[in-house]
Amino acid sequence: MTTIAGLPTARGFACGPVFVYRGDGEIPIPEYVVEPGRETDELMRLRRAMMDTRRDLENLIAILRERTGRADVRVFECHLMILEDAALVEEAEGYVTKDRLNAEAAVRKTANAARRQFERMNDPYFRERVRDLDDIERRILKALTGFASSPHLELKTPSIIIADDLTPSETVQLPRELVLGFATNGGSTTSHVALLARALALPAVTGLGDITSRVKPGEFVLLDGTNGAITLNPDRATIRDFSDLVERQIELTENVARGAPAGTLKSGGEVRIFANVHPGVPLAGIREQGARGIGLYRSEYLWLIRGVEPTEEEQFIAYRDAAKFAATLSEGGSITIRVLDIGGDKLVRGISSKEANPFLGNRSIRYLLSHRDVFRTQIRAILRASAYGKILMLYPMVSCVEELRECAVAVAEVKASLEREGIPFDRNIRVGAMIEVPSAALAADDLAKYVNFFSIGTNDLVQYTMAADRGNESVAHLYQPTHPAVLRLMRMTIEAAKRAGIGVSVCGESAADPIVGILWVAMGVEVLSMSSTYIPLISKILARLTREDLKEYAKVPESMPPCSTAAEILAACHKFLVGKIPNLDDILI
Ligand code: PEP
Ligand code: MG
């Protein structure tokens, strides 16, 4: 038996066979001239690969239709059209039958010629088709060479996915019903695959180093996302202990579901706890976990799931349905829809451009302000949906006042056109800025003049303050939410919000950290929004604290000696909470 420690990334436990996902590297292809008389065999090989590709595409379209509940699979339908293009098929077959090229070389030669033609065209629509061509070429070459294809095509039994790393688009394409959990070599607790694992209520461990080379496909393992470990070849006693942990976790969820509303304090009163959601992941579970509303709707997943820009109508339907659902969570249950937060590691083929440093590039609100048509369409869809529920609109990655001024102009223009068309919307829709880069925290007093609330995105705020990539396990030790610099920026933001009389919430995953999340509340944050699987845990801790306790808790970091480190502050916070809740460590299992 071997237990390997990693980063506890998404709580929960799973056991089962592993599926090792090796990702999509460059496909090496052989190029040769087939022997005279073997042309027909080679032609049949090419046709079989095309048929397999068509079948895989049709399956994928069917899966996506079922998953998104709608028929927006245009990108893959476009791939099917390219695959069936008579001229392209004829050209590829000609290379085999006349020039005696092997099938792989024939596909590459055909694709290269078509790529050159598309690239020469002035029409951006056709230039974009180059990417589709790349994709379809890859699929046919995979079918010919047997190169490992995407996991959604290969995964047959419920498994624990083991990978070097997974991108958000790879993760959303996995068949949820067959995924028991994730374990990755790289990644970290706030990487996007981690957040998705939490939203899907799937356990995950990241930062395991070389786990992909230590497991064999199909091997039985235990995955402990709560403590951050994976056990290979577990013995009987370990399997028994593991089952106990699973029971205790289930108990925790059930007790909260039966008890007082989530976030109720021992002294009465409550801290509002909302859920972070990803479109495409069922919402029903967040009610059971106790969410009082949706504090962060990551709209970019509508783009990631489809691989293309959703239309205004598709966005409107998604926002309206989510808003109607949020209204059922509590009285006046609201939803905060964050506009497209694309970029960084959330890349959409054909939409995101190549940048040397995407985390500091044209992402999020910067992207929207430089793609006004995309922004206008989204604002319109959100405003139209605001007639059906209480919607708040949130701008990601704000770094200066100019951006908020431009957002206000864009919103005013769309409102005016909806007025002219007589389309109903909430005229007083509240807008907020995410505070997730240091410049925003430092300029919080100025930004507060343009918005109704701040939502602090600690996932990025910690990353940008510490200059430590949130998804890179080798700098995970520097990713410190309790670093004095981060605490100072948090304090500045909260105080600026109070001075301006606007709301302040935290929607970064630190809200779900039992020690850090409670600290934000103590420092004056009014709403915590988190992956809903964590709501029972945070509620259980809040239920053991009074307002007085929270006031004292806020003073803990301030009372630390000068030059204290993040670890020392965290330890002092932990010690304080254990003083108030002696069985804290049992609750945290
Ligand atoms: C954050 O940065 O804290 C946040 C909530 O946004 P995301 O994790 O989607 O970048
Ligand atoms: Mg962010």
Characterization of the model:
49% of the residues lie in helices and 14% in strands. The chain has 25 helices and 16 strands. Strands 1-8-7-3-4-5-6-2 form an eight-stranded mixed beta sheet. The chain has an eight-stranded parallel barrel with strand order 9-10-11-12-13-14-15-16, surrounded by six helices. It is globular and about 90 Å long. The two termini are 22 Å apart. Residues 195, 296, 298, 341, 436, 457-460, 507-508 line the site of phosphoenolpyruvate (PEP).
Strand order of the largest sheet: 1-8-7-3-4-5-6-2
User: Rounded to an integer, what's the Rg over CA atoms?
Assistant: 26 Å
| Strand segment count | 16
Straight-line distance between termini: 22 Å
Mean pLDDT, all residues: 88
Percent strand: 5-15%
* Residue runs with pLDDT of under 50 for 5 or more positions: none
Which shape, going by the Cα principal axes?
globular
Largest sheet descriptor: 8 strands, mixed
Helix content: 40-55%
What count of helical segments does DSSP give?
A: 25
The structural class is alpha/beta
Bound molecules: phosphoenolpyruvate, magnesium ion
Quaternary structure of the protein: single chain
